Fold:
Amino acid sequence: MIVVTLVIAGAFFVLDLKLPSGVGEWGFYLFPLLLTVRVRAASYPFIFTGICSVLLVVGFACSPFLLPWRLLALDRLVGIGALWVTAGLLVQRRRTEQALQLSESRLRAILDHSPLRIFAKDLRGRYIEFNRQCEISHNQTREKALGRTDTELFPKPVSDIFRITDQKALEAGGAVTTELQIPRENDVRTVLSIKFPLLDVDGKCNAICGVSADITELKQVERALRQSQERLALLARVTGAVVGARPLQEEGRKLAEHVRKAFGVDACVIRILEGEDLILLASAGIPEGQLQPRLPVGLGIAREMMSARKAMFMADVRAHDSSALCRNQLPEEHRYISYAGAPLLVQDRVVGILGIYSRVQLDPLPETDLEHLQIVANHIAVAIVNDMLFREIETQKNQMEEEVGVRKRMEEALQTLSRRLLELQETERRHLARELHDEIGQALTALKINLQTVQRLDDAAAFVPRLVDSIRIVDRILRQVRDLSLDLRPSMLDDLGLCAALRWYADQQGQRAGLRIQFAGGDLAERVETAVETACFRVAQEALTNVVRHARASKVLVQLEIDGAALHLAVCDDGVGFDPAQLHRRAEPGSRLGLLGMEERASLIGGRIELKSTLRHGTEVHAWFPLAEAAPPHPESPELVEKP
Structure:
């Protein structure tokens, strides 16, 4: 085609050279330019137009002029422009055709490879599209189907169904989904069909399109799945009743009824193995009063089932003499014909049997039904064993609760005794402190005064050294008695309260040990209970004693504050510290009496102790004591005053 167009263009060029120049001679080149659209190369129209433009210019220069040259030049320029515009339109048309062909090929590939049946009909019902899946499903070729109607392609019952659904889609003006039952030679296929009208550019319906899929197998699977789900749900109710049966005797009838309904039989009986007998646990469909409460293991089919350890089925028990005794004991209306049973197994140990009965003869049960029956029997066996274990555990639990109650009462009595012992200890300390201060202290003070009086006598010069030494000894004893009295029970704890007593004790310990002990905590707004004050003071006393003995600290902070509903005491030092876990592991008996004493004092009044320590980073002792309502004012105690 390229050669043809070039030859035609050359012929027109020769004709242009021989003829005088006139207006419109460029129009000759439009004919070969239009033929370039048939050339496969998309850019060829532009190349050909360039060649024609050159030929027009040469022809203008070499042809004789009949008209003014300016007019002819303008005509040639207009012609060249018209050729280029035509070439552009041709290229654009070619590109549009190629895009349309590509789109059509893609659409055809999609339609032919789609697993769904896709088709289209015009308003007269003739097929205008029929994809590959339609060919396979309907056994019709696309060429045969196009242009034909359903009546011409399918039997009348099928074509009537298609025509009715087409009409519904046209009337609805939108997509209509329908589940169709399409008759075939040997069966009926279920087809899910979606049909919708196709609209033109003006919005008018000019065809109808349909998408359909054969869902026969899916429907069969759904039905089988639904039946299986219903069966499993029923078995799940049975299993739930088994697992939740407590006590099992009370739930047995309900359990047997679930099993009876699950397998669609007339009766169900559950028996438990006890020695050489099968004890009736529960039944449904047969009144328990008409059943033997105890049967020998070797009677009927039970022995065979328990020996084989698997579910068994008997279509007609009348043919088995071993079952006649059990069957004949029942009233006529409850005598069964078909029987299926399973041993109750727990880890291959038989604990009983489960039997289901039918008064009409049943077809042989499928293996799946026997497997389900054995599964249910195993669940029941687990429930029976669990019930036995539960009873044992319940008995042990009652015994343990009784032992725990006795132990708890003993612990409460011990705590009461310990609390009373501490109270008596504090009372005795208070008594000893007052005796030391009031009696011995006053006697020593009187002795000191007498010695000082003798020292001032004129004739006592010879005894002055001994008197001075005696007075010194009396002073030392007085100080020791006073310190001992205050250590036993500082009177200011009773007279001035906890803050004053702790501040005094911190100063005393700091002076004795050469430590800088700081007390932080304002006076409490109200006095707390005596027991709380005493316990807090003793914990602080023990903590400071431990600091002096072991911490090798230079600074100590004693802090007292109200923390919510508790009194918080903190004793912190900057000493060597220790590893609390290592202390607990390596402590020898009796080496933790100080810490145990603090914990005991705090726990007896409902408090607690917390110990924090790190090697070379000091130790913190925190104690919390519960606060009750403000305690009544303490009775005044005689002041420990040194008498002159």
